[in-house]
Protein backbone atom coordinates (compact mmCIF):
# COMPACT_ATOMS: atom_id res chain seq x y z
CA UNK A 1 0.00 0.00 0.00
CA UNK A 2 1.22 3.46 -0.78
CA UNK A 3 1.60 5.81 2.15
CA UNK A 4 1.19 9.53 1.54
CA UNK A 5 0.94 12.69 3.61
CA UNK A 6 -2.52 14.14 4.06
CA UNK A 7 -2.97 17.73 3.01
CA UNK A 8 -4.15 20.33 5.52
CA UNK A 9 -5.25 23.47 3.63
CA UNK A 10 -4.91 26.45 5.99
CA UNK A 11 -5.74 29.25 3.58
CA UNK A 12 -9.15 30.88 4.15
CA UNK A 13 -9.63 30.76 0.38
CA UNK A 14 -9.24 26.96 0.22
CA UNK A 15 -12.94 26.19 0.92
CA UNK A 16 -13.92 28.89 -1.57
CA UNK A 17 -11.77 27.28 -4.27
CA UNK A 18 -13.16 23.85 -3.39
CA UNK A 19 -16.72 25.15 -3.63
CA UNK A 20 -16.07 26.90 -6.95
CA UNK A 21 -14.57 23.77 -8.52
CA UNK A 22 -17.52 21.71 -7.26
CA UNK A 23 -20.01 24.28 -8.61
CA UNK A 24 -18.31 24.31 -12.02
CA UNK A 25 -18.33 20.50 -12.27
CA UNK A 26 -21.93 20.22 -11.04
CA UNK A 27 -23.23 22.99 -13.33
CA UNK A 28 -21.46 21.55 -16.37
CA UNK A 29 -22.71 17.98 -15.91
CA UNK A 30 -26.26 19.05 -15.06
CA UNK A 31 -26.41 21.33 -18.08
CA UNK A 32 -25.31 18.68 -20.59
CA UNK A 33 -26.81 15.46 -19.20
CA UNK A 34 -30.42 16.05 -18.03
CA UNK A 35 -31.82 14.32 -21.08
CA UNK A 36 -35.19 13.27 -19.64
CA UNK A 37 -35.96 16.19 -17.29
CA UNK A 38 -34.86 14.29 -14.20
CA UNK A 39 -31.50 13.75 -12.57
CA UNK A 40 -28.24 14.16 -14.47
CA UNK A 41 -26.97 11.08 -16.28
CA UNK A 42 -23.37 12.22 -15.70
CA UNK A 43 -22.11 13.37 -12.29
CA UNK A 44 -18.43 14.07 -11.61
CA UNK A 45 -18.73 16.79 -8.96
CA UNK A 46 -18.87 14.28 -6.10
CA UNK A 47 -15.76 12.59 -7.48
CA UNK A 48 -13.92 15.85 -6.83
CA UNK A 49 -15.32 16.13 -3.28
CA UNK A 50 -14.46 12.50 -2.49
CA UNK A 51 -10.92 13.05 -3.74
CA UNK A 52 -10.67 16.22 -1.64
CA UNK A 53 -11.82 14.43 1.53
CA UNK A 54 -9.61 11.39 0.93
CA UNK A 55 -6.47 13.52 0.55
CA UNK A 56 -7.00 16.03 3.39
CA UNK A 57 -7.07 15.83 7.15
CA UNK A 58 -10.46 15.49 8.82
CA UNK A 59 -10.09 18.95 10.34
CA UNK A 60 -10.65 20.38 6.85
CA UNK A 61 -13.71 18.25 6.11
CA UNK A 62 -16.41 20.56 7.63
CA UNK A 63 -15.25 23.55 5.58
CA UNK A 64 -15.01 21.53 2.36
CA UNK A 65 -18.39 19.85 2.90
CA UNK A 66 -20.13 23.16 3.68
CA UNK A 67 -18.63 24.85 0.61
CA UNK A 68 -19.63 21.96 -1.69
CA UNK A 69 -23.11 21.70 -0.17
CA UNK A 70 -23.67 25.39 -0.90
CA UNK A 71 -22.29 24.96 -4.44
CA UNK A 72 -24.54 21.93 -5.01
CA UNK A 73 -27.62 23.80 -3.84
CA UNK A 74 -26.92 26.75 -6.16
CA UNK A 75 -26.19 24.49 -9.15
CA UNK A 76 -29.36 22.44 -8.55
CA UNK A 77 -31.48 25.58 -8.19
CA UNK A 78 -30.09 27.26 -11.32
CA UNK A 79 -29.50 24.35 -13.69
CA UNK A 80 -31.00 21.25 -12.09
CA UNK A 81 -34.41 20.16 -10.86
CA UNK A 82 -35.22 23.49 -9.17
CA UNK A 83 -34.97 25.49 -5.93
CA UNK A 84 -37.38 23.21 -4.06
CA UNK A 85 -34.96 20.30 -4.31
CA UNK A 86 -31.77 22.35 -3.92
CA UNK A 87 -31.25 21.89 -0.16
CA UNK A 88 -32.17 18.18 0.11
CA UNK A 89 -30.13 17.32 -2.99
CA UNK A 90 -27.15 19.24 -1.59
CA UNK A 91 -27.40 17.21 1.64
CA UNK A 92 -27.66 13.97 -0.32
CA UNK A 93 -24.70 14.83 -2.56
CA UNK A 94 -22.30 15.62 0.28
CA UNK A 95 -23.58 12.60 2.23
CA UNK A 96 -22.43 10.30 -0.57
CA UNK A 97 -18.92 11.72 -0.46
CA UNK A 98 -18.80 11.64 3.33
CA UNK A 99 -19.88 7.99 3.48
CA UNK A 100 -17.19 6.94 1.00
CA UNK A 101 -14.49 9.02 2.69
CA UNK A 102 -15.42 7.76 6.18
CA UNK A 103 -15.40 4.09 5.12
CA UNK A 104 -12.07 4.43 3.29
CA UNK A 105 -10.46 6.33 6.17
CA UNK A 106 -11.67 3.71 8.68
CA UNK A 107 -10.42 0.69 6.75
CA UNK A 108 -7.41 2.20 5.01
CA UNK A 109 -6.20 4.81 7.51
CA UNK A 110 -3.84 6.92 5.38
CA UNK A 111 -3.63 4.67 2.31
CA UNK A 112 -4.23 6.26 -1.07
CA UNK A 113 -6.90 4.42 -3.07
CA UNK A 114 -4.74 4.32 -6.20
CA UNK A 115 -1.73 2.81 -4.44
CA UNK A 116 -2.53 -0.90 -4.62
CA UNK A 117 -5.37 -3.32 -5.22
CA UNK A 118 -6.81 -3.59 -1.69
CA UNK A 119 -7.39 0.18 -1.16
CA UNK A 120 -8.91 0.36 -4.63
CA UNK A 121 -11.31 -2.50 -3.82
CA UNK A 122 -12.33 -0.83 -0.55
CA UNK A 123 -13.06 2.39 -2.41
CA UNK A 124 -15.15 0.60 -5.05
CA UNK A 125 -17.19 -1.28 -2.43
CA UNK A 126 -17.71 1.87 -0.36
CA UNK A 127 -18.93 3.81 -3.40
CA UNK A 128 -20.93 1.22 -5.31
CA UNK A 129 -21.91 -1.11 -2.48
CA UNK A 130 -22.90 1.36 0.21
CA UNK A 131 -22.91 5.08 -0.53
CA UNK A 132 -24.71 5.13 -3.90
CA UNK A 133 -27.32 2.59 -2.83
CA UNK A 134 -28.24 4.53 0.31
CA UNK A 135 -28.09 8.04 -1.11
CA UNK A 136 -29.76 6.87 -4.35
CA UNK A 137 -32.91 5.99 -2.43
CA UNK A 138 -33.06 9.49 -0.92
CA UNK A 139 -32.25 11.18 -4.24
CA UNK A 140 -34.89 9.13 -6.09
CA UNK A 141 -37.49 10.14 -3.49
CA UNK A 142 -36.74 13.84 -4.01
CA UNK A 143 -36.51 13.54 -7.82
CA UNK A 144 -39.73 11.55 -8.18
CA UNK A 145 -41.57 14.20 -6.14
CA UNK A 146 -40.25 17.19 -8.11
CA UNK A 147 -39.82 15.82 -11.67
CA UNK A 148 -41.90 13.70 -14.08
CA UNK A 149 -39.40 10.82 -13.81
CA UNK A 150 -40.52 7.90 -11.63
CA UNK A 151 -38.75 6.58 -8.52
CA UNK A 152 -37.11 3.53 -10.14
CA UNK A 153 -35.83 5.46 -13.16
CA UNK A 154 -34.56 8.27 -10.91
CA UNK A 155 -32.71 5.78 -8.67
CA UNK A 156 -31.12 4.14 -11.72
CA UNK A 157 -30.07 7.53 -13.12
CA UNK A 158 -28.55 8.53 -9.78
CA UNK A 159 -26.80 5.23 -9.15
CA UNK A 160 -25.39 4.90 -12.67
CA UNK A 161 -24.26 8.50 -12.99
CA UNK A 162 -22.72 8.78 -9.53
CA UNK A 163 -21.18 5.30 -9.36
CA UNK A 164 -19.68 5.41 -12.84
CA UNK A 165 -18.58 9.03 -12.54
CA UNK A 166 -17.03 8.40 -9.13
CA UNK A 167 -15.24 5.25 -10.28
CA UNK A 168 -13.59 6.85 -13.28
CA UNK A 169 -12.87 10.35 -11.98
CA UNK A 170 -12.03 10.05 -8.27
CA UNK A 171 -8.68 8.21 -8.69
CA UNK A 172 -7.68 10.63 -11.45
CA UNK A 173 -8.42 13.65 -9.26
CA UNK A 174 -6.61 12.04 -6.29
CA UNK A 175 -3.49 11.66 -8.40
CA UNK A 176 -3.80 15.33 -9.36
CA UNK A 177 -4.35 16.58 -5.80
CA UNK A 178 -1.48 14.49 -4.44
CA UNK A 179 0.93 15.85 -7.02
CA UNK A 180 1.45 12.46 -8.72
CA UNK A 181 1.25 14.01 -12.17
CA UNK A 182 3.89 16.66 -11.46
CA UNK A 183 6.03 14.13 -9.57
CA UNK A 184 5.92 11.79 -12.53
CA UNK A 185 6.94 14.57 -14.88
CA UNK A 186 9.76 15.62 -12.55
CA UNK A 187 11.21 12.22 -11.62
CA UNK A 188 10.63 10.10 -14.71
CA UNK A 189 13.58 9.64 -17.10
CA UNK A 190 13.27 11.30 -20.48
CA UNK A 191 13.22 8.01 -22.38
CA UNK A 192 10.29 6.79 -20.32
CA UNK A 193 8.43 10.06 -20.93
CA UNK A 194 8.92 9.73 -24.67
CA UNK A 195 7.70 6.14 -24.58
CA UNK A 196 4.65 7.21 -22.56
CA UNK A 197 3.83 10.00 -25.02
CA UNK A 198 4.09 7.61 -27.96
CA UNK A 199 1.81 5.09 -26.25
CA UNK A 200 -0.73 7.78 -25.29
CA UNK A 201 -0.67 9.16 -28.84
CA UNK A 202 -1.29 5.65 -30.18
CA UNK A 203 -4.13 5.21 -27.70
CA UNK A 204 -5.62 8.56 -28.75
CA UNK A 205 -5.44 7.58 -32.42
CA UNK A 206 -7.10 4.23 -31.75
CA UNK A 207 -9.84 5.85 -29.64
CA UNK A 208 -10.56 8.50 -32.32
CA UNK A 209 -10.71 5.77 -34.95
CA UNK A 210 -13.14 3.68 -32.88
CA UNK A 211 -15.53 6.55 -32.07
CA UNK A 212 -15.34 8.61 -35.29
CA UNK A 213 -13.96 6.65 -38.25
CA UNK A 214 -14.66 2.96 -37.79
CA UNK A 215 -17.53 1.48 -39.77
CA UNK A 216 -17.98 -1.36 -37.31
CA UNK A 217 -18.33 -1.37 -33.50
CA UNK A 218 -14.77 -1.84 -32.21
CA UNK A 219 -15.04 -0.87 -28.55
CA UNK A 220 -12.58 -3.66 -27.71
CA UNK A 221 -9.80 -2.04 -29.77
CA UNK A 222 -8.64 0.53 -27.15
CA UNK A 223 -8.23 -2.19 -24.53
CA UNK A 224 -4.90 -3.49 -25.85
CA UNK A 225 -3.05 -0.14 -25.80
CA UNK A 226 -4.80 0.68 -22.49
CA UNK A 227 -3.37 -2.43 -20.81
CA UNK A 228 0.01 -1.82 -22.46
CA UNK A 229 0.08 1.71 -21.02
CA UNK A 230 -0.86 0.38 -17.58
CA UNK A 231 2.06 -2.06 -17.75
CA UNK A 232 4.64 0.34 -19.14
CA UNK A 233 3.71 3.70 -17.57
CA UNK A 234 1.86 2.75 -14.38
CA UNK A 235 -1.16 4.27 -12.70
CA UNK A 236 -0.41 7.78 -13.97
CA UNK A 237 -0.47 6.51 -17.56
CA UNK A 238 -3.63 4.48 -16.90
CA UNK A 239 -5.34 7.55 -15.43
CA UNK A 240 -4.30 9.66 -18.43
CA UNK A 241 -5.70 6.99 -20.77
CA UNK A 242 -9.04 7.01 -18.94
CA UNK A 243 -9.22 10.81 -19.28
CA UNK A 244 -8.48 10.58 -23.02
CA UNK A 245 -11.09 7.85 -23.45
CA UNK A 246 -13.66 9.82 -21.43
CA UNK A 247 -13.16 13.03 -23.41
CA UNK A 248 -13.12 11.50 -26.89
CA UNK A 249 -15.76 8.86 -26.30
CA UNK A 250 -17.98 11.16 -24.20
CA UNK A 251 -18.03 13.94 -26.77
CA UNK A 252 -18.72 11.46 -29.56
CA UNK A 253 -21.54 9.71 -27.68
CA UNK A 254 -23.27 12.97 -26.70
CA UNK A 255 -22.91 14.15 -30.30
CA UNK A 256 -24.73 11.02 -31.51
CA UNK A 257 -21.53 9.63 -33.05
CA UNK A 258 -19.66 6.44 -32.50
CA UNK A 259 -20.33 2.71 -32.07
CA UNK A 260 -22.97 3.22 -29.36
CA UNK A 261 -25.23 4.79 -31.96
CA UNK A 262 -25.88 1.25 -33.25
CA UNK A 263 -27.76 0.51 -30.01
CA UNK A 264 -31.47 1.50 -30.23
CA UNK A 265 -31.48 3.57 -27.01
CA UNK A 266 -32.18 7.12 -25.96
CA UNK A 267 -29.35 9.61 -25.63
CA UNK A 268 -29.38 9.31 -21.84
CA UNK A 269 -29.24 5.53 -22.00
CA UNK A 270 -26.34 5.71 -24.46
CA UNK A 271 -24.52 8.03 -22.09
CA UNK A 272 -25.05 5.52 -19.29
CA UNK A 273 -23.84 2.73 -21.56
CA UNK A 274 -20.71 4.73 -22.38
CA UNK A 275 -20.09 5.40 -18.69
CA UNK A 276 -20.44 1.68 -18.03
CA UNK A 277 -17.89 1.02 -20.78
CA UNK A 278 -15.62 3.66 -19.28
CA UNK A 279 -15.95 2.10 -15.83
CA UNK A 280 -15.03 -1.33 -17.23
CA UNK A 281 -12.00 0.22 -18.86
CA UNK A 282 -11.10 1.78 -15.53
CA UNK A 283 -11.52 -1.57 -13.73
CA UNK A 284 -9.30 -3.18 -16.33
CA UNK A 285 -6.45 -0.68 -16.23
CA UNK A 286 -6.26 0.87 -12.76
CA UNK A 287 -6.09 -2.37 -10.71
CA UNK A 288 -3.43 -3.67 -13.10
CA UNK A 289 -1.49 -0.44 -12.72
CA UNK A 290 -1.95 -0.50 -8.94
CA UNK A 291 -0.70 -4.08 -8.71
CA UNK A 292 2.29 -3.27 -10.90
CA UNK A 293 2.96 -0.19 -8.78
CA UNK A 294 2.97 -2.38 -5.68
CA UNK A 295 5.28 -4.86 -7.34
CA UNK A 296 7.65 -2.07 -8.37
CA UNK A 297 7.80 -0.86 -4.77
CA UNK A 298 8.33 -4.42 -3.58
CA UNK A 299 11.09 -4.93 -6.14
CA UNK A 300 12.74 -1.68 -5.05
CA UNK A 301 12.52 -2.74 -1.39
CA UNK A 302 13.99 -6.12 -2.29
CA UNK A 303 16.87 -4.46 -4.14
CA UNK A 304 17.57 -2.22 -1.15
CA UNK A 305 17.31 -5.18 1.21
CA UNK A 306 19.59 -7.24 -1.02
CA UNK A 307 22.15 -4.43 -1.05
CA UNK A 308 22.08 -4.18 2.74
CA UNK A 309 22.29 -7.94 3.07
CA UNK A 310 25.29 -8.16 0.74
CA UNK A 311 27.07 -5.31 2.52
CA UNK A 312 26.55 -6.96 5.91
CA UNK A 313 27.30 -10.49 4.72
CA UNK A 314 30.48 -9.60 2.87
CA UNK A 315 31.95 -7.52 5.70
CA UNK A 316 30.73 -9.47 8.71
CA UNK A 317 32.96 -11.69 10.80
CA UNK A 318 30.08 -14.15 11.08
CA UNK A 319 29.38 -16.72 8.38
CA UNK A 320 26.12 -15.94 6.57
CA UNK A 321 24.35 -18.77 4.75
CA UNK A 322 21.30 -18.94 2.51
CA UNK A 323 19.73 -22.38 2.79
CA UNK A 324 16.90 -23.64 0.55
CA UNK A 325 13.91 -25.73 1.57
CA UNK A 326 15.88 -28.94 1.05
CA UNK A 327 18.57 -27.83 3.50
CA UNK A 328 21.17 -27.17 0.79
CA UNK A 329 23.44 -24.12 1.03
CA UNK A 330 22.88 -21.70 -1.86
CA UNK A 331 25.09 -18.85 -0.65
CA UNK A 332 27.99 -18.58 1.81
CA UNK A 333 29.60 -15.29 2.79
CA UNK A 334 33.35 -14.68 2.25
CA UNK A 335 33.97 -14.97 6.02
CA UNK A 336 33.51 -18.76 5.67
CA UNK A 337 37.12 -19.00 4.52
CA UNK A 338 38.47 -17.30 7.63
CA UNK A 339 36.07 -18.84 10.14
CA UNK A 340 35.83 -22.38 8.80
CA UNK A 341 38.86 -22.66 6.59
CA UNK A 342 36.66 -23.49 3.60
CA UNK A 343 36.09 -21.38 0.48
CA UNK A 344 32.48 -20.19 0.13
CA UNK A 345 32.21 -21.76 -3.33
CA UNK A 346 32.95 -25.17 -1.83
CA UNK A 347 30.13 -24.82 0.69
CA UNK A 348 27.53 -23.99 -1.96
CA UNK A 349 25.62 -27.14 -2.85
CA UNK A 350 26.46 -28.87 0.44
CA UNK A 351 23.89 -29.71 3.09
CA UNK A 352 23.88 -27.31 6.03
CA UNK A 353 23.96 -30.27 8.42
CA UNK A 354 27.32 -31.30 6.95
CA UNK A 355 28.90 -28.35 8.77
CA UNK A 356 28.13 -29.92 12.14
CA UNK A 357 29.65 -32.83 13.96
CA UNK A 358 27.70 -36.06 13.48
CA UNK A 359 26.40 -35.81 17.04
CA UNK A 360 24.78 -32.42 16.40
CA UNK A 361 23.50 -32.77 12.84
CA UNK A 362 19.98 -33.68 13.86
CA UNK A 363 19.81 -30.57 16.04
CA UNK A 364 20.95 -28.35 13.14
CA UNK A 365 18.32 -29.94 10.89
CA UNK A 366 15.66 -29.39 13.56
CA UNK A 367 16.56 -25.70 13.89
CA UNK A 368 16.18 -25.14 10.13
CA UNK A 369 12.87 -27.01 10.07
CA UNK A 370 11.62 -25.03 13.05
CA UNK A 371 12.52 -21.76 11.31
CA UNK A 372 10.56 -22.84 8.23
CA UNK A 373 7.59 -23.90 10.35
CA UNK A 374 7.49 -20.58 12.23
CA UNK A 375 8.33 -17.74 9.79
CA UNK A 376 9.00 -14.43 11.48
CA UNK A 377 10.62 -15.92 14.59
CA UNK A 378 14.34 -16.38 15.25
CA UNK A 379 15.71 -19.81 16.18
CA UNK A 380 19.04 -20.33 17.86
CA UNK A 381 21.21 -23.36 18.61
CA UNK A 382 24.76 -24.26 19.57
CA UNK A 383 26.59 -27.06 17.80
CA UNK A 384 30.01 -28.61 17.51
CA UNK A 385 31.44 -27.98 14.02
CA UNK A 386 32.91 -30.70 11.86
CA UNK A 387 36.58 -30.92 12.77
CA UNK A 388 37.52 -31.43 9.11
CA UNK A 389 36.26 -27.91 8.36
CA UNK A 390 37.72 -25.99 11.30
CA UNK A 391 39.39 -26.22 14.64
CA UNK A 392 36.55 -24.44 16.43
CA UNK A 393 35.16 -25.93 19.62
CA UNK A 394 31.63 -24.57 19.44
CA UNK A 395 29.50 -22.48 17.08
CA UNK A 396 26.22 -20.67 17.46
CA UNK A 397 23.68 -20.67 14.62
CA UNK A 398 20.88 -18.11 14.42
CA UNK A 399 18.27 -18.90 11.74
CA UNK A 400 15.20 -17.19 10.35
CA UNK A 401 12.92 -18.13 7.46
CA UNK A 402 12.87 -16.17 4.20
CA UNK A 403 9.32 -15.74 2.87
CA UNK A 404 7.85 -14.83 -0.51
CA UNK A 405 5.17 -12.22 -1.27
CA UNK A 406 2.48 -14.63 -0.01
CA UNK A 407 4.24 -15.11 3.30
CA UNK A 408 5.27 -18.68 2.46
CA UNK A 409 8.79 -19.77 3.49
CA UNK A 410 11.19 -20.31 0.60
CA UNK A 411 14.38 -20.87 2.55
CA UNK A 412 16.38 -19.99 5.63
CA UNK A 413 19.07 -17.40 6.27
CA UNK A 414 21.49 -18.44 9.01
CA UNK A 415 24.35 -16.68 10.75
CA UNK A 416 27.09 -18.83 12.27
CA UNK A 417 29.60 -17.40 14.70
CA UNK A 418 32.48 -18.86 16.67
CA UNK A 419 31.67 -18.96 20.39
CA UNK A 420 34.60 -21.15 21.43
CA UNK A 421 36.13 -18.41 23.58
CA UNK A 422 32.77 -17.58 25.09
CA UNK A 423 32.17 -21.23 25.99
CA UNK A 424 35.69 -21.49 27.43
CA UNK A 425 35.09 -18.45 29.63
CA UNK A 426 31.70 -19.87 30.57
CA UNK A 427 33.27 -23.18 31.59
CA UNK A 428 35.96 -21.35 33.57
CA UNK A 429 33.34 -19.32 35.40
CA UNK A 430 31.34 -22.45 36.10
CA UNK A 431 34.42 -24.11 37.50
CA UNK A 432 35.10 -21.10 39.70
CA UNK A 433 31.49 -21.02 40.85
CA UNK A 434 31.60 -24.76 41.57
CA UNK A 435 34.57 -24.44 43.95
CA UNK A 436 34.78 -22.97 47.41
CA UNK A 437 37.31 -20.17 47.06
CA UNK A 438 38.98 -20.90 50.44
CA UNK A 439 39.19 -24.65 50.73
CA UNK A 440 38.91 -25.90 47.13
CA UNK A 441 35.97 -28.11 48.07
CA UNK A 442 32.77 -28.06 46.02
CA UNK A 443 30.58 -25.04 46.60
CA UNK A 444 27.22 -25.59 48.25
CA UNK A 445 25.33 -25.31 44.93
CA UNK A 446 27.72 -27.64 43.07
CA UNK A 447 27.59 -30.23 45.86
CA UNK A 448 23.78 -30.16 46.02
CA UNK A 449 23.62 -30.63 42.23
CA UNK A 450 25.80 -33.74 42.58
CA UNK A 451 23.59 -34.95 45.42
CA UNK A 452 20.51 -34.53 43.19
CA UNK A 453 22.16 -36.60 40.46
CA UNK A 454 23.08 -39.32 42.95
CA UNK A 455 19.52 -39.38 44.29
CA UNK A 456 18.40 -40.33 40.77
CA UNK A 457 20.92 -43.16 40.72
CA UNK A 458 19.72 -44.27 44.13
CA UNK A 459 16.19 -44.43 42.72
CA UNK A 460 17.56 -46.94 40.19
CA UNK A 461 19.13 -49.09 42.95
CA UNK A 462 22.55 -47.52 43.55
CA UNK A 463 23.72 -47.67 47.18
CA UNK A 464 25.42 -44.39 48.14
CA UNK A 465 25.84 -42.49 51.39
CA UNK A 466 25.89 -38.91 52.63
CA UNK A 467 28.24 -37.88 55.43
CA UNK A 468 27.57 -34.56 57.15
CA UNK A 469 30.55 -33.24 59.18
CA UNK A 470 31.13 -30.34 61.55
CA UNK A 471 34.50 -29.33 63.11
CA UNK A 472 34.48 -29.54 66.87
CA UNK A 473 35.09 -26.34 68.89
CA UNK A 474 35.88 -24.33 65.77
CA UNK A 475 34.76 -21.07 67.40
CA UNK A 476 37.58 -21.36 69.95
CA UNK A 477 40.08 -21.63 67.09
CA UNK A 478 38.84 -18.35 65.62
CA UNK A 479 38.85 -16.72 69.05
CA UNK A 480 42.43 -17.80 69.80
CA UNK A 481 44.14 -17.57 66.41
CA UNK A 482 41.85 -15.22 64.54
CA UNK A 483 40.01 -15.81 61.31
CA UNK A 484 43.28 -16.35 59.47
CA UNK A 485 44.05 -19.28 61.70
CA UNK A 486 40.53 -20.59 61.28
CA UNK A 487 40.88 -20.40 57.48
CA UNK A 488 44.11 -22.45 57.65
CA UNK A 489 42.34 -25.09 59.74
CA UNK A 490 39.47 -25.34 57.22
CA UNK A 491 41.90 -25.61 54.30
CA UNK A 492 44.06 -28.18 56.10
CA UNK A 493 40.95 -30.19 56.99
CA UNK A 494 39.94 -30.52 53.34
CA UNK A 495 43.48 -31.29 52.21
CA UNK A 496 43.75 -34.06 54.80
CA UNK A 497 40.46 -35.65 53.76
CA UNK A 498 40.73 -35.56 49.96
CA UNK A 499 43.37 -38.35 49.61
CA UNK A 500 40.95 -40.82 51.20
CA UNK A 501 38.18 -40.07 48.67
CA UNK A 502 37.73 -42.18 45.55
CA UNK A 503 36.98 -41.09 42.01
CA UNK A 504 33.33 -40.07 41.98
CA UNK A 505 33.25 -39.10 45.67
CA UNK A 506 32.80 -35.41 46.49
CA UNK A 507 33.42 -33.12 49.41
CA UNK A 508 31.55 -29.85 49.66
CA UNK A 509 31.54 -26.93 52.05
CA UNK A 510 27.96 -26.18 53.02
CA UNK A 511 28.83 -23.19 55.16
CA UNK A 512 31.20 -22.09 57.92
CA UNK A 513 32.85 -25.18 59.39
CA UNK A 514 30.18 -27.57 58.07
CA UNK A 515 31.16 -30.00 55.30
CA UNK A 516 29.47 -32.86 53.49
CA UNK A 517 30.91 -35.88 51.71
CA UNK A 518 29.02 -37.78 49.02
CA UNK A 519 30.21 -41.39 48.86
CA UNK A 520 29.20 -43.01 45.58
CA UNK A 521 28.41 -46.73 45.57
CA UNK A 522 29.22 -46.90 49.27
CA UNK A 523 26.79 -48.35 51.86
CA UNK A 524 26.54 -47.49 55.57
CA UNK A 525 29.22 -49.93 56.70
CA UNK A 526 31.82 -48.82 54.18
CA UNK A 527 30.99 -45.18 54.91
CA UNK A 528 31.50 -45.72 58.65
CA UNK A 529 34.87 -47.32 57.99
CA UNK A 530 35.88 -44.35 55.81
CA UNK A 531 34.90 -42.04 58.64
CA UNK A 532 37.29 -43.87 60.96
CA UNK A 533 40.13 -43.52 58.45
CA UNK A 534 39.44 -39.81 58.13
CA UNK A 535 39.63 -39.44 61.87
CA UNK A 536 43.05 -41.12 61.85
CA UNK A 537 44.34 -38.80 59.10
CA UNK A 538 43.30 -35.77 61.14
CA UNK A 539 45.35 -36.97 64.11
CA UNK A 540 48.28 -34.98 62.74
CA UNK A 541 48.12 -31.35 63.93
CA UNK A 542 47.35 -28.56 61.44
CA UNK A 543 49.45 -25.39 61.37
CA UNK A 544 47.43 -22.29 62.13
CA UNK A 545 50.03 -19.52 61.62
CA UNK A 546 53.57 -18.71 60.56
CA UNK A 547 54.90 -19.30 64.10
CA UNK A 548 54.56 -23.03 63.62
CA UNK A 549 51.62 -23.17 66.03
CA UNK A 550 49.56 -26.28 65.26
CA UNK A 551 46.42 -27.87 66.66
CA UNK A 552 44.72 -31.23 66.34
CA UNK A 553 41.26 -31.16 64.78
CA UNK A 554 38.33 -33.45 65.45
CA UNK A 555 34.92 -33.59 63.85
CA UNK A 556 31.43 -34.83 64.57
CA UNK A 557 29.57 -36.61 61.76
CA UNK A 558 26.10 -37.76 60.81
CA UNK A 559 25.68 -40.55 58.26
CA UNK A 560 22.69 -41.51 56.11
CA UNK A 561 22.39 -43.96 53.25
CA UNK A 562 20.56 -42.40 50.31
CA UNK A 563 17.00 -43.54 49.76
CA UNK A 564 15.91 -43.15 46.15
CA UNK A 565 12.27 -42.98 47.17
CA UNK A 566 12.87 -39.91 49.34
CA UNK A 567 13.99 -36.35 48.59
CA UNK A 568 17.22 -34.43 48.90
CA UNK A 569 15.84 -32.30 51.71
CA UNK A 570 14.79 -35.39 53.65
CA UNK A 571 18.26 -36.91 53.31
CA UNK A 572 19.96 -33.71 54.50
CA UNK A 573 17.59 -33.45 57.45
CA UNK A 574 18.24 -37.06 58.44
CA UNK A 575 22.02 -36.56 58.27
CA UNK A 576 21.70 -33.30 60.19
CA UNK A 577 19.75 -35.03 63.01
CA UNK A 578 22.45 -37.68 63.21
CA UNK A 579 25.10 -34.96 63.37
CA UNK A 580 23.17 -33.26 66.15
CA UNK A 581 23.18 -36.53 68.09
CA UNK A 582 26.95 -36.83 67.59
CA UNK A 583 27.54 -33.31 68.95
CA UNK A 584 25.47 -34.04 72.03
CA UNK A 585 27.18 -37.35 72.59
CA UNK A 586 30.52 -35.81 73.42
CA UNK A 587 31.64 -34.82 69.87
CA UNK A 588 34.43 -36.48 67.86
CA UNK A 589 32.13 -39.35 66.96
CA UNK A 590 29.82 -40.66 64.21
CA UNK A 591 26.11 -41.23 64.47
CA UNK A 592 23.98 -42.90 61.80
CA UNK A 593 20.48 -41.82 60.88
CA UNK A 594 17.73 -44.20 61.93
Automatic annotation (TrEMBL):
It comes from the Bacteria. SUPFAM superfamilies: Nucleotide cyclase (SSF55073), PYP-like sensor domain (PAS domain) (SSF55785). The chain crosses the membrane at residues 12-32, 38-55, 64-84, 90-108, 120-143, 155-177, 197-214, 226-251, 271-290. It comes from Sphingobium soli. It catalyses: 2 GTP = 3',3'-c-di-GMP + 2 diphosphate. Signal peptide: none annotated. Its main location: membrane. Keywords: Cell membrane, Membrane, Nucleotidyltransferase, Transferase, Transmembrane, Transmembrane helix. Coiled coil: none annotated. Residues 462-594 form the GGDEF domain. Its EC number is 2.7.7.65. GO terms for molecular function: diguanylate cyclase activity. It is found in: Cell membrane. This is diguanylate cyclase. Residues 379-431 form the PAC domain.
